[in-house]
């Protein structure tokens, strides 16, 4: 009886998209498309004062707007449409995190490969910097960077790069150390190839694959970190939309029962990070050469 | 026990076919395999890589991953069909009757557990009712049985405190612990030196005679088969090519493939009928222009936290002086850990020695300085052991060879040859130029590695075990190629190998290395026929007798 039930469940579970990791991929695609098409889809630009009706502040979800559309997710305390805020906020969250992760990956790759290949003092200097970076709490580093540099989008990207490069550098160094010891690098040395050629044509291309698996995970971290900073008012400037500041906007209204101002941006953030992490995990499994055939 | 079970052979595989379920449809791995094994018999399964011999061994052990499926045939133990009975019963039957010995003694044992405890664990799994006193006694008896000295005291030692050969003995003791009827030994001596291999094979033979156990021996090495097997199963591409008593297979092989396989096995000649008079038994040093003098190398033993405490060092090479015959192949033979690879790497400039000089023609180079600064790096090219890691996996063959022409030939100032002509020379189709290394077979990759070394137009090539990762038939082809090239291109080759037969087939002068020192040296003829050095003799004696003349 129980076995039969379990078997039926298993049959359905096999078709459940989560098992094949299709749902997160769909979600992620949808997120990216929504972010790209935000100006076309959003009924108002919530950060353009001329498009906001201040008297419609704190409307509940589903309230019709004077502009001829409906506030499907309600408005915040200043009358900004939550749905529109989320769409515009996604743009900035994704842009900031993708750009910062790409830059951090590039820096980490260069630093890690150099540390592994040159060894000696280069290795010591780079890896002690990495240790220093990783021993400080991420939040603290980001806070110090923002406070000293001042909040603006490029500063946030800079802060996220500072926080992230070390993780890449350490991973790449480990991989590159293994590659450097392989005979094909010895063969390249025997041909007296210029150092940059051994580095960029031989060691680097073979050290990249594991890094690719780290990128989505780090993008997820970056989104969360950017949202946290924005929540604290240290991230994206107040005149720019962000999921983190959108959550913060509703914070003071939570106790008055106006749950929607914080809840919907929070859910959007959760869905985004979750789908990125699932896709990242799927990617890691696919790229793992030891994976078992299905 | 029924009559059928009584008369049935211990192991019988009947018409076994296996396939591998891949996303692109099933791939057949084994076709119609039938073999049997009687009590007290040693049956060898021999084949080259990809023949399916290990898959067959694992199928009998029940260790195949779920992606493999048995499409036809049966495996019976004492007449009991493992597929016919409940799978849990089949598993219990396997566990009670069959055990395994694998190749790699470093990973077969748990490094954190004392060897005694590991064997005891196996005994307890087989006989849970035994009291700990009895288990201890059994463990000690087993250790004695596999000839571990001082078994009572070494009971508590961990695997790293034993040598490779001793570890493999302990693995065998573990295999014996459950009192099985059959041991499936998959390449049990392939990771060991020839002298140790001989001892382990003698132990296995002794165990068979003493306890009546049966052994299914999976190996690629004809010598191992010749040493201990009663019957041989020759496998090729998942089929059985020939199955017969060992004397028949070795002396009158019925099958064409077996004949070729036997012909490819390098053999040692111990009679000096082809006396090579062109090389004296010893080389007079000043006459020759290429070699090394007083090369010494030590490695630190462990790493201390305090920088000045790193005083304990292990000597890898002690004051080695050697000369190479110009335009010929000079061999360096030694067992693992003798320092032969280190010597090759120092000579090629990949590693710095602690002291010593290297002489190339008129030039004398200080081997203890950075080889980039002394200009040694780039004068010598190398052919490495494992071609699957000596070619950059992300570069096409053409790119790799072009790099060699562009950068390698620069140092010597010679013009570059055409890639196509070189591909022809090493016996590869020009169409392979566009491929990546993983799309080539092991032998093809090694040919590419040879082409890469030659395209740099070196005077000297160091070949570090260039054929030990290859199948025997491929090994024979690569050795022929090396010989032809040396004769044609007038390069000087330092050939490093553990295999005496290969060295004899190829080299005119031989150095025998033992623990970082030269134990013996002389013309190939002298070393193999007249040398009085006890170490050289013991190396030659360790070769399976069948393959020495």
Automatic annotation (TrEMBL), chain B:
Tagged with keyword ATP-binding: yes
Protein name as catalogued: Peptide ABC transporter ATP-binding protein
Biological processes annotated in GO: transmembrane transport
Taxonomy, superkingdom: Bacteria
Organism of provenance: Xaviernesmea oryzae
Lineage, highest ranks first: Bacteria, Pseudomonadati, Pseudomonadota, Alphaproteobacteria, Hyphomicrobiales
Family per similarity comment: Belongs to the ABC transporter superfamily.
Pfam families found in the cross-reference section: ABC_tran
UniProt keyword Ribosomal protein, yes or no: no
Molecular function as annotated in GO: ATP binding; ATP hydrolysis activity
SUPFAM superfamilies: P-loop containing nucleoside triphosphate hydrolases
Residues annotated as domain ABC transporter: 13-262, 296-540
Keywords: ATP-binding, Nucleotide-binding, Transport
């Amino acid at each position: 009886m129980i076995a039969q039930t379990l078997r039926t469940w298993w049959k359905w579970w096999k078709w459940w998209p989560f098992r094949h990791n299709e749902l997160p991929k769909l979600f992620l695609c949808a997120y990216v498309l929504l972010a790209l098409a935000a100006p076309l889809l959003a009924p108002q630009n919530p950060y353009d004062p001329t498009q906001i009706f201040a008297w419609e502040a704190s409307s509940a979800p589903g309230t019709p707007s004077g502009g001829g559309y409906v506030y499907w997710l309600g408005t915040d305390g200043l009358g900004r449409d939550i749905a529109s805020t989320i769409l515009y906020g996604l743009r900035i969250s994704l842009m900031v995190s993708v750009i910062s992760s790409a830059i951090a990956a590039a820096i980490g790759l260069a630093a890690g490969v150099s540390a592994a290949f040159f060894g000696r003092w280069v290795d010591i200097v780079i890896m002690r910097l990495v240790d220093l970076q990783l021993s400080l709490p991420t939040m603290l580093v980001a806070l110090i960077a923002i406070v000293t540099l001042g909040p603006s989008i490029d500063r946030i990207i800079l802060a996220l790069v500072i926080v992230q490069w070390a993780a890449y550098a350490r991973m790449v160094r480990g991989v590159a150390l293994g590659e450097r010891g392989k005979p094909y690098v010895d063969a390249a040395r025997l041909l007296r190839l210029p150092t940059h050629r051994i580095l960029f044509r031989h060691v680097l291309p073979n050290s990249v694959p594991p890094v690719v698996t780290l990128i989505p995970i780090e993008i997820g971290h970056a989104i969360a970190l950017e949202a946290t900073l924005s929540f604290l008012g240290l991230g994206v400037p107040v005149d720019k939309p962000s999921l983190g500041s959108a959550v913060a906007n509703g914070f003071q209204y939570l106790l008055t029962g106006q749950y929607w101002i914080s809840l919907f941006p929070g859910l959007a953030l959760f869905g985004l990070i979750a789908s990125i992490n699932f896709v990242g995990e799927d990617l890691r499994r696919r790229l793992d050469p030891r994976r078992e055939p299905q | 026990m029924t009559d059928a079970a009584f008369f049935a052979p211990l192991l019988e595989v009947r018409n076994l076919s296996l396939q591998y379920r891949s996303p692109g449809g099933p791939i057949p791995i084994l076709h119609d395999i039938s073999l049997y094994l009687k009590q007290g018999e040693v049956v060898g399964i021999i084949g080259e890589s990809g023949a399916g011999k290990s898959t067959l061994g694992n199928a009998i052990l029940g260790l195949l991953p779920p992606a493999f499926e048995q499409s036809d045939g049966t495996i019976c133990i004492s007449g009991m069909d493992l597929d016919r009975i409940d799978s849990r019963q089949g598993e219990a039957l396997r566990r009670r009757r069959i055990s395994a010995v694998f190749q790699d003694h470093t990973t077969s044992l748990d490094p954190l557990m004392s060897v005694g405890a590991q064997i005891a664990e196996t005994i307890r799994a087989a006989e849970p009712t035994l009291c700990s006193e009895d288990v201890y006694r059994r463990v000690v008896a087993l250790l004695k049985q596999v000839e571990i000295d001082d078994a009572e005291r070494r009971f508590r030692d961990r695997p790293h405190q034993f040598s490779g050969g001793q570890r493999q003995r302990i693995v065998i003791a573990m295999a014996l612990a459950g009192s099985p009827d059959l041991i499936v030994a998959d390449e049990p001596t392939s990771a060991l030196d020839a002298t140790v291999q001989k001892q382990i094979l003698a132990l296995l033979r002794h165990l068979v005679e003493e306890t009546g156990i049966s052994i299914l021996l999976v190996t690629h090495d004809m010598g191992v088969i010749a040493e201990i097997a009663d019957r041989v199963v020759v496998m090729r591409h998942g089929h059985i090519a020939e199955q017969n008593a060992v004397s028949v297979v070795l002396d009158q092989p019925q099958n064409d493939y077996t004949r070729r396989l036997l012909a490819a096995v390098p053999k040692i000649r111990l009679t000096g009928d082809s006396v090579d008079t062109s090389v004296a038994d010893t080389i007079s040093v000043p006459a020759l222009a290429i070699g090394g003098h007083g090369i010494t190398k030590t490695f630190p033993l462990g790493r201390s936290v305090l920088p000045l405490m790193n005083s304990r060092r292990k000597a890898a090479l002690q004051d080695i002086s050697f000369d190479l015959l110009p335009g010929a192949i000079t061999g360096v033979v030694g067992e693992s850990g003798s320092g032969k690879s280190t010597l090759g790497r120092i000579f090629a400039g990949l590693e710095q020695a602690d002291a010593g000089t290297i002489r190339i023609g008129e030039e004398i180079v200080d081997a203890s300085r950075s080889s980039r600064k002394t200009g040694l790096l780039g004068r010598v090219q190398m052919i490495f052991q494992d071609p699957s890691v000596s070619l950059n996996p992300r570069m096409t063959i053409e790119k790799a060879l072009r790099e060699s022409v562009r950068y390698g030939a620069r140092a010597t100032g010679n013009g570059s040859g055409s890639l196509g002509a070189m591909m022809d020379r090493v016996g590869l189709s020009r169409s392979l130029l566009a491929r990546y290394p993983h799309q080539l077979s092991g032998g093809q990759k090694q040919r590419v590695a040879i082409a890469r070394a030659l395209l740099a137009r070196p005077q000297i090539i160091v070949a570090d075990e260039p054929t030990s990762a290859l199948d025997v038939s491929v090994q024979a082809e690569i050795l022929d190629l090396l010989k032809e090239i040396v004769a044609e291109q007038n390069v000087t080759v330092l050939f490093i190998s553990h295999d005496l037969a290969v060295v004899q087939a190829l080299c005119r002068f031989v150095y025998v290395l033992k623990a970082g020192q030269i134990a013996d040296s002389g013309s190939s003829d002298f070393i193999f026929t007249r040398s009085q050095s006890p170490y050289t003799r013991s190396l030659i004696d360790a070769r399976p007798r069948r393959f020495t003349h």
